Structure formats: C-alpha cells, structure tokens
Amino acid sequence: MPEKDGTMNIEEIKNYLPHRYPFLFLDRVIQIEENGLVAIKNVTGNEDFFQGHFPDYPVMPGVLQIEAMAQAACLFIIYKYKLQKEPVFFISIDKVKFRGQVIPGDTLRIEIEILRFGGRIARVKGRSFVGEKLVVEAEMAAMAGKRK
Predict the structure, then answer these.
(1) How many C-beta neighbours within 10 Å does residue 33 have?
(2) Domain-embedded: residue 5
(3) Is residue 4 situated within a structural domain?
(4) Which of 1, 106, 96 is nearest to 44 (CA)?
(5) Which of 39, 65, 91, 122 is within CB 3.0–4.6 Å of 72 for a Cys-Cys bond?
C-alpha cells in the first residue's frame, strides 16, 4: 500500500512491479491521483547503460526513457485496478516525441494519465520532465494478461 501521503518508496513499488535492478527505472512515486501518478527516476552516472551510450557523452537512451514511463503506467494500472496477480504488457506506443536529453545527475519526473480503461486494455499518456523541461512524451496502450 502507498504511504499515508499518497507516495510510494522503492520497496512499495516492488510490491506492484515485477521489474528489478538493473531494469527497474522508478525510484519513488510522489503523487497518486484518481487518473494518474507522478513518479521519479534519479539518473546517476552509475547506470549500466552509460558505459556504452555514450562513453564520452553519457545520454540516457530514449527507449529507456519510454520504458520508465511504461513502468510508471503499469504501476498505476496494477495499483488502481488491483491487478497484482496479473502481468500488464504494453501493446502499442504512439506519438512519441523526444524533446531533450537526459544525462547523469538529472531527475526524471514522469507524469502518467489514464485516458481510458475498458475490458483489459488501458490507454495512457505519459510525459517526462527534467526540471520544467519536457524531454519525452508518448501515448501508450497496455493489456492486463495472463502468463504463457
């Protein structure tokens, strides 16, 4: 369960998501609302992906920025619709726009909004910021499903 103030620490996040180091890209949830949440990813120079992307100019890969948004969306879907027993899989990512770089030392603030949930399909909008600068946005769809 989230803390009394509507936040989640890393241990609470792990109660909802199956992801673990080095592929868990959320550090904290700072706000949970009726139709979405705000999560934080602290980007450090110790991230494994910076060894190769790029050694002389470390930049967080865009696909991992999208993954962080996808994890935040999954977390909210699992939390809101009480789906702890079922995995949530992304089925589409649309309208992706990268608007800035994410580098070591940045704090990525991820905002997720549920646009629609019906049946087993959720449509969400994600936007990530460094400070007040929008660095990536996308619309995504996810499906609550069964393991093979």
Answers:
(1) 13
(2) no
(3) no
(4) 106
(5) 39
Answer yes or no: 19 catalytic.
no
User: How many domains is the chain partitioned into structurally?
Assistant: 1
74 located within any domain: yes
For residue 72, what is the domain's CATH number? Answer: 3.10.129.10
Residue 2 belongs to some domain of the structure: no
E-strand spans in the chain?
28-33, 36-42, 88-98, 107-118, 121-130, 133-144
Tokens standing for residue 60: 């967080």
Predicted confidence (pLDDT) per residue in 28-78, tens digit: 999 999 999 999 999 999 999 999 999 999 999 999 999 999 999 999 999
Strand order in the sheet with 121-130: 28-33, 36-42, 107-118, 121-130, 133-144, 88-98
pLDDT tens digits, 78-115 = 999 888 878 899 999 999 999 999 999 999 999 999 99
Domain ranges, residue 140:
10-144
pTM, two decimal places: 0.94
Q: In this structure, what DSSP letter does residue 84 have?
A: T
